[in-house]
């Protein structure tokens, strides 16, 4: 994966705060997945990997802090089932997720417009 990033990945990452983008996207992905069915941390990592066709598999070092932050914010809850901690979305988390997805759809539309942009008269 590193080779596809190109020589200027560090500069682009710093200029456009890609770490924050990935963190926010991870939290939104978690909310979306647990809105469909309760899942434990490892299942979330595997489902994100499957959903992204193998191009992204969050590490335990990113998934568990994101889960903790979502719990602190009241967007998900945790229940113990045997040795596994199962995560479920709350009604407040559902509301936040819907708002974030609507915002993301507009952002994707704007990004598509940017990618297809042609200057007038060109």
Secondary-structure-based class equals mainly alpha
Number of strands: 3
Q: Indicate the CATH architecture.
A: Orthogonal Bundle
Low-confidence stretches: none
Number of helices: 6
Listing every helix as H and every strand as E from the N terminus to the C terminus, the arrangement reads HHHEHHEEH
- Round the mean pLDDT to the nearest integer and report it: 86
Shape type: elongated
* Fourth-level CATH superfamily: Winged helix-like DNA-binding domain superfamily/Winged helix DNA-binding domain
> Taking strands numbered 1, 2, ... along the chain, how are they ordered across the largest sheet?
1-3-2
Largest sheet: 3 strands, antiparallel
Oligomer: single chain
Which strand-content bin applies to the residues? Answer: 5-15%
Which fold does the CATH topology refer to?
A: Arc Repressor Mutant, subunit A
Give the N-to-C terminal Cα separation: 36 Å
Rg from Cα:
17 Å
What would CATH call the class?
Answer: Mainly Alpha
- How many structural domains are formed by the residues? 1
Q: Which percent range fits the helix content?
A: 55-70%
Which labels suit this protein?
122 residues, mainly alpha, Arc Repressor Mutant, subunit A, three-stranded antiparallel β-sheet, 6 helices, 3 strands
Describe the protein's architecture and organization.
- By secondary structure, the protein is mainly alpha-helical.
- 66% of the residues lie in helices and 11% in strands.
- It has 6 helices and 3 strands.
- A 3-stranded antiparallel sheet has the order 1-3-2.
- A hairpin with a 2-residue loop joins strand 2 and strand 3 (84-89).
- Helix 3 packs across helix 5 and helix 4 packs across helix 5.
- It starts with a helix and ends in a 7-residue tail after the last helix.
- The model has no long low-confidence stretch (mean pLDDT 86).
């Amino acid at each position: 994966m590193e080779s596809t990033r190109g020589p200027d990945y560090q500069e682009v990452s710093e200029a456009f705060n890609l770490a924050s983008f990935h963190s926010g996207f991870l939290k939104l992905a978690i909310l979306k997945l647990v809105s469909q069915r309760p899942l434990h941390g490892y299942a979330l990592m595997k489902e994100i990997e499957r959903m992204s066709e193998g191009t992204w598999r969050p590490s335990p070092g990113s998934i568990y802090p994101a889960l903790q932050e979502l719990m602190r914010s009241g967007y998900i809850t945790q229940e113990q089932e045997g040795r596994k901690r199962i995560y479920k979305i709350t009604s407040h988390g559902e509301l936040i997720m819907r708002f974030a997805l609507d915002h993301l759809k507009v952002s994707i539309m704007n990004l598509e417009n940017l990618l297809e942009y042609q200057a007038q008269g060109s």
